[in-house]
Structure prediction request, 339 residues.
Amino acid sequence: MSADVAIETAPSDWYSDPNVWAVERARIFSAGWQFAAHESALAEAGAWCAETLAGYPILLVRGEDGVLRGFHNVCRHRAGPLVKGDAGRCDGALVCQYHGWRYALDGRLRLARDFGPAADFDPRDFSLFPVRVENWRGLLFVAIADDAPDFSQFIAPLEARIGNRDWSDLKLAARRKHALACNWKTYVENYLEGYHVPVLHPGLDADIRSEDYRVTVDGRVALHDAPPREAGVYDGVWAWVWPNIGVNIYQRGLMIERMSPVGHGQTRLDYFYLTPGGEAVSEATFAMSDQVTAEDKWITERVQENLNAGVYRTGRLSPKHECAVAAFQAWVREALKTA
Prediction:
């Protein structure tokens, strides 16, 4: 994006037309990498966690051999779920909650309970559907498509920016969820710029020097730099990773923010707070996080209402502040065109 040329925004029907969602789900979320969990939640053999990522039910489990594997949380019999809840621990097997089919932790079907004789039924043909799993600094990413981009290249810009920060002792300390009545892109674009901070976020504006807020794009990563004021909550660096992950670095620990689409018009923010040794998250951190989230929820829901109203079609993007929004819209446009 040229420093002296403003460009037109994406059309409002991207955010208001429910037919767009099906294309995005297949061409964006199935085709790339999505954050699923932190490894500290899966430390022991048999530990599992279940997430729904853009409508795809995903299950991560630590095998008895210590290997972490990912599967669709879908039984091969009649699509029942393999677990109940968000997390737990199983004793050597995953058992379908519908008809009791039993799978080894490596995904092999071990028992089709009381199935009866069937000459053409070979259990070896009915292993769980796998998903690819990558571990980056303890953050677990999954890919549904076999041809997802090379993960090391995908994450390289963020790896370079994080540098020698040591996250090896971080553990999951808390999780929070927030429901938003807006399209996922409406929220993502809000996250991708600091232009609104002095207007919308007085607490955050007091915590950082927003006049020095800068966003740069490297690969499909948007890197935010906003120098913190003395004794602030934030470290002054955070990032966004395509298509929907925020990495919010605090003075002590960090928070991974997954901007989870729930269909076309609903978004859920999944917050994973990671602290040294899993220590309690400070009240100051929670207070700042809650305040900024409430402010973002209010504005993105109002923007969505206006996008749905049919008055606004397109606008213009600031060449000074909104280069990452322009990049994001270009990537979405590319995905929609290849559908």
Q: What stands out?
A: The first strand starts at residue 7 and ends at 8.
